[in-house]
Amino acid sequence: MPYSSNLAVQIFLDRLGSRTKLGSEEMDVIRSLPGQKITAGGDRDLVRPGDSVDHACLIVDGVVGRFGQMRDGRRQITAFYVAGHMANLQSVVFPSTGASLQALSPVTIIRMPHKALKAAAAKYPALADAFWRECAVDACVLAQWIVNLGRKSAVARMAHLLAELGLRMEEAGLGTSHRYRLELTQVHLGDALGLTSVHVNRVFRQLREAKVVTVSKRVIEICDWNALISIGEFDRDYLHIDTKCWDLPSHRREENHASSGISMQM
């Protein structure tokens, strides 16, 4: 079910409030910020390379990707954003950053003017702190992605991403950490993980055969959470979110990735 604008704003407030103490006045300011609701189909650019923007994009529904593109058309996705995420909050201080945003599925967003966000931050120091922390978390996630790309095997990269997305989907109320719908194609996943779509399919097959993950009609089900986080060397601290499903009961608690038959050298 598509999210309402009010619910997306509340999720954003919950994210801010989980890291910074906000009073009712600050929260009312966020709820009353002006914005323009935009809908877009999948694969539509929201911010193009080199654009100088005067707004930040709050995701209401769907998945938005941040990416960099090479001259030959190849791209690297550097972030996924779902409902309740402000995809380019850093653009308030750097309107032209070189990063592009694209709707990876049909999306609804709210364009919030930089002017209004700056005024709110100037008047309410707690909001300025909250915005700063939100940008800092985004940087933490990017740093972890770099480590994954540079030093982990293909299957470990995928395991780590699936665990991360599970926690983030749960935070947004879009599922649970062990079962969620993922509106991304194998090409999208490959562009985030530095893999071809053929390689992505091979990694999914390995995880499925090891009874760690199943995928059906874009629904991801984590059959063995402990094995998944072990394979991906996943530690959620970099996400700075609080969820209740971190210690999920494993369907096969007695087994770990060492005996799962998954090669860590892919």
From TrEMBL:
One of its GO terms (molecular function) is DNA binding. GO terms for biological process: regulation of DNA-templated transcription. InterPro entries: cNMP-bd_dom (IPR000595), cNMP-bd_dom_sf (IPR018490), HTH_CRP (IPR012318), RmlC-like_jellyroll (IPR014710), WH-like_DNA-bd_sf (IPR036388), WH_DNA-bd_sf (IPR036390). Pfam families: cNMP_binding, HTH_Crp_2. The keyword Metal-binding does not apply. CDD domains: CAP_ED. It comes from the Bacteria. Residues 152-226 form the HTH crp-type domain. Keywords: DNA-binding, Transcription, Transcription regulation. This is CRP-like cAMP-binding protein. It comes from Sphingobium boeckii.
